[in-house]
Amino acid sequence: MVKIVEVTKEEGWYTGLGLLTPSDEVQRDFVADLIRADFRFLLPQDPEAIVLDLGCGLGTLTQVFAAQSRLVMAVDLTWERLRFAQLRLEQEGFHNVIFIHADITRFRLKPGCLSLALLNGVLEWLPLSCSGGPNQIQAAVLARVREWLAPHGWILIGIENRYARSQLKGQRDPHSGLRGTAILPRSLANGVVRAAARWWPQGMKQRMGRQREGYRTWTHSLPVYSRMLEQAGFRAVQAYIPIHSYNVPHTILPVASEPALCWYLGDWWSGHSLRRRLIHTQGKIARLLVWVWSRTAEDFFFIGRAG
Q1: What are the DSSP calls for 80-135, one per residue?
Q2: Which of 59, 152, 219, 243 is deepest in the core (most CB within 10 A)?
Q3: What pLDDT, on a 0 to 100 scale, did the predictor assign at position 91?
Q4: How far apart are CA 74 and CA 119, in angstroms?
């Protein structure tokens, strides 16, 4: 990242971004693609909004919200990524962004000062930066964000589903790099991670970082996420399923809208005549299929109002 920052200063952020994966134009375009912030259409549009982008990374979401808000505060723990985001926004002509190098779990703001808080791909990583129970750390940050928001402010969370179909099929957990750690009971996942840290090649040990102490990047199920937000004090909590993922949401479906889910599944299963007919029957079997599909989605968006 140090080299990327140097190139970004001299030749521009898009050229610098190419050093991330010099042989992969698709990956570079992914990082630059502003469609990643299309969840913004789920939220009230306010040109006077003050937005907090927690875990801003390389600045994609920051750029989008800087274009439609009065002020954006971009926070990240990694200095090089934050510096890249700062250069990117300056080169794009934005001067309404404050960049803050801080650990989110220790970050503080004045109560009631925000219109919107973004935690996109962030909540599950928080327990890696401090000690304590992962569930308690996540809950504490949500409660703190709730305090920072004005009475009609909103939170947006993008995150993976613990019981995603890919995990149930045995694919690698994107957070630990191991199979099964997301869906296993937490105590067993801890044992798997500790064993992997002891016996895995050195490269895997480095990738896991503090997770070698145990499985800490907790994700949750749809009802647990909703309950966590409500317990933190959020109201009007709504869940959505992003297609293709929360990082590239080509389509966003409301979980509470059975007709929308039936419509999508009917189109998705167009090549499977039996399943498509079952979906369009609108009966108990159709509702069961929709329920199972929504609870095993890969990712979710959640929005909630502070008051």
Answers
A1: HHHHHHHHHHHHTT---EEEEE--GGG----TT-EEEEEEES-GGGGGGGSSS-HH
A2: 59
A3: 94
A4: 11
Distance (Å, whole) CA 206 – CA 217: 15
Six-digit token string for 228: 């966590």
Q: Which amino acid is at 15?
A: T
Neighbours of 158 (CB within 10 A): 23
Give the H/E segment covering residue 2. Answer: helix 2-11
Measured in degrees and rounded to the nearest 5, phi and psi for residue 274 equal -65, -50
Can you read off the two tokens belonging to residue 297?
């989605």
Give start and end residues of each alpha helix (H) in 152-199: 165-168, 186-199
In whole angstroms, what is the distance from residue 256 CA to residue 238 CA? 8
- How far is 276 from 266, CA to CA, in rounded Å? 5
Low-confidence ranges of the chain (pLDDT < 70): 20-27, 200-212, 266-283
pLDDT at 72 (0 to 100): 98
Left (φ > 0), alpha (ψ -120 to 50) or beta: where does 161 sit? beta
Per-domain boundaries in the chain: 169-208
Residues in the chain: 307
**pTM of the complete model:** 0.90
Element (H, E) at 304: strand 299-305
DSSP assignment, residue 179? B
Calculate the alpha carbon distances from 176 to 30, 157, 205 in Å. 22, 20, 10
Q: What is the per-residue pLDDT for 172?
A: 92
For residue 263, what is the enclosing H or E element?
Answer: helix 258-268
